[in-house]
Inverse folding.
């Protein structure tokens, strides 16, 4: 029920409006003058204030001032006589939601009040959603208590609200994008867009127009002009993922944006200025690329103003139990917990494993277990085969295969299958990536997947 305060020095108006609102379900308190109204606002919270404008001593404008500065969540509507329309316009400029002219009809009153409250609810909802978004990408979702991750939290806090360019480096799946999001959503740019672009995933010829936009006719197929990601990110941040993959020609253009904050669209002559914070990431060692001449030194130093190095998971094993718990809860949220914990053996194996795919691999293993594991407590044998553990290794196949009639061919095939599955899991079933890890070409991998009848357990796309 909405709480409404009415302030008017005319007792008849207080009475009439009070009655109308009460019969329509509002909780109403009346104050006979501006001073009493302000005292009431200091004592109790109100969703809405209806105040007369002209009152002796403390008038409606002063009430409005109080609301705007002290209780900004309260919506204010002013009541005005014919002679004071001008001041009611003034009141709206100051922050009143609307005004109602006396004499007041019940219908008009109710319509204006309903509109005001509806607007207020929308604003609140908007605020709540924004907060929720911030929580999703704030530190709440960056799990870990190891010294290494704590250092990263400190860095995020220090740099978030500056405009400094950040270069995040770390192996695949270590959480670089999550960190970039945390930086953006904890900065004063958080209500402006964070535009993400993976420089490694877009063909070189398209990347330039993707980043900087193009004019109509700039190249075959450019039927319309289009703005690029830098323009989309104006006022906010841009996350340039896999920056190490950028071609030398584009590196020059990017350098100019960093230095001068301006560029031209492909095929365009107009110079476009943008205010964008740049966060870049790389899973390659950029200094190696630097030495090989593949990455420009001047660009590197411009990007590397604030370096954040994310260590691989095996260098912060103390975070593993927390991450397991976090993902277990996340994947089973809103339903009965199918798995609730790990046996000592299973936990031991999880802690000792090297996690070449880092947090992403761990996340995928937990996801798979929440789907496939039949026991509440995950045992060693429930873990994927590529995670080594006591009493189970690849070698026993060698001992067994003669007596059990397991052929070498079958043993090799099993081993191959577990390697392929491991690589696929590490790369989120992106076959090109998995093939790279296995050092085979993609076509060979696809053939093997078909032959071995391998299928992905549960889609991982929704969790990225
Ligand atoms: N500290 C962490 N806490 C919780 N989840 C994490 C953490 N680090 C990574 N993750 C999760 O692991 C997955 C991979 O993280 P992210 O995409 O940020 O990695 P990345 O370093 O950008 O990887 P790539 O180089 O492959 O793009 C995501 O689903 C992310 O939510
Ligand atoms: Mg990434």
């Amino acid at each position: 029920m909405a709480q409404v305060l009415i302030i008017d020095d005319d007792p008849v108006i207080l009475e009439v409006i009070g009655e109308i609102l009460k019969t329509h379900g509002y909780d109403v308190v009346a104050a006979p003058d501006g001073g009493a109204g302000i005292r009431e606002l200091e004592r109790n919270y109100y969703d809405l204030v209806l105040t007369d404008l002209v009152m002796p001593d403390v008038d409606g404008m002063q009430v409005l001032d109080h609301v705007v500065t002290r209780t900004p969540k309260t919506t204010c509507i002013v009541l005005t006589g014919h002679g004071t329309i001008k001041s009611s316009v003034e009141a709206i400029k100051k922050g009143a939601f609307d005004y109602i002219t006396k004499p007041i009809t019940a219908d008009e009153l109710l319509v204006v009040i309903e509109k005001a409250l509806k607007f207020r609810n929308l604003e609140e909802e908007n605020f709540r959603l924004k907060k929720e978004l911030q929580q999703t990408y704030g530190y709440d979702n960056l799990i870990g208590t190891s010294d290494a991750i704590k250092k990263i939290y400190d860095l995020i806090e220090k740099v978030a609200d500056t405009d400094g360019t950040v270069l995040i480096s770390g192996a695949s799946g270590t959480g670089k994008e999550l960190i970039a999001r945390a930086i953006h959503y904890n900065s004063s740019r958080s209500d402006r867009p964070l535009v993400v672009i993976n420089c490694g995933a877009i063909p070189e010829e398209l990347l330039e127009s993707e980043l900087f936009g193009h004019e109509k006719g700039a190249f075959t197929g450019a039927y319309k002009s289009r703005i690029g990601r830098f323009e989309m990110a104006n006022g906010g941040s841009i996350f340039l993922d896999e920056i190490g993959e950028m071609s030398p020609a584009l590196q020059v253009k990017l350098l100019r944006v960093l230095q001068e904050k301006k560029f031209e669209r492909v095929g365009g002559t107009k110079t476009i200025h943008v205010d964008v914070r740049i966060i870049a990431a790389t899973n390659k060692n950029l200094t190696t690329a630097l030495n090989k001449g593949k990455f420009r030194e001047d660009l590197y130093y411009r990007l590397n103003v604030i370096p954040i190095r994310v260590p691989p998971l095996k260098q912060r094993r103390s975070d593993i139990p927390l991450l397991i718990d976090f993902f277990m809860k996340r994947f089973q949220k809103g339903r009965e917990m199918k798995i609730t914990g790990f046996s000592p053996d299973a936990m031991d194996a999880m802690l000792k494993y090297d996690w070449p795919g880092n947090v992403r691999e761990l996340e995928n293993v937990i996801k798979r277990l929440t789907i496939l594991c039949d026991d509440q407590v995950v045992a060693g044998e429930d873990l994927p085969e590529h995670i080594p553990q006591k009493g189970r290794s690849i070698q026993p196949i060698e001992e067994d295969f003669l007596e059990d009639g397991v052929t070498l061919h079958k043993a090799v095939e099993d081993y191959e299958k577990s390697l392929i599955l491991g690589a696929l899991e590490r790369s989120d079933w992106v076959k090109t990536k998995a093939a790279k890890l296995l050092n085979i070409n993609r076509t060979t991998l696809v053939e093997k997947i078909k032959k071995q009848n391998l299928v992905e357990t549960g889609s991982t796309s929704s969790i990225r």
User: Anything to note?
Assistant: Confidence is low (pLDDT under 50) at residues 394-403, 459-464.
